[in-house]
Amino acid sequence: MKIIVTSLFVEDQDEALAFYTETLGFVKKEDIPMGEFRWITVVSPEEQEGTELVLEPNHHPAAKEYQTKIFNDGIPATMFGVADVQQEYQRLMEKGVTFTMEPTKMGEVTIAVFDDTCGNLIQIAQK
């Protein structure tokens, strides 16, 4: 068994797609109309056959409430691995990304947290 797809609630699918591809550098894999919304997935450019991230609309009240509560409590919705947190931090800062936690070493891991502009805090980690 392996993880093939995971979801992230977003406020606006078009804005999320732009942020996740243009700012973060993920690659769009799927963009399929599904009634009022779309099935949009992105993947790492380094593993285009790897795990897909669904940019899931937060239209359902429970999804919106969950997303709002964890954001307000400062809890990242997910974590992405990077080779060098400091380098990624600098790259994203230059693109105007707002960080809520600068690169911080915690034992064997260095992490940082940013606002994805779509209703989520995202943690990046370097092992």
From TrEMBL:
The keyword Oxidoreductase is annotated on this UniProt entry: yes
Stretches that traverse the bilayer: none
Xref: CDD domains: VOC_like
GO molecular function terms listed in the Swiss-Prot or TrEMBL record: dioxygenase activity
Keyword Ribosomal protein: no
Domain VOC: 1-127
Keywords attached to this entry: Dioxygenase, Oxidoreductase
Superkingdom, taxonomy of origin: Bacteria
Pfam families (alphabetical): Glyoxalase
Name listed for the protein in its UniProt record: Catechol 2,3-dioxygenase
Organism, scientific name: Alteribacillus persepolensis
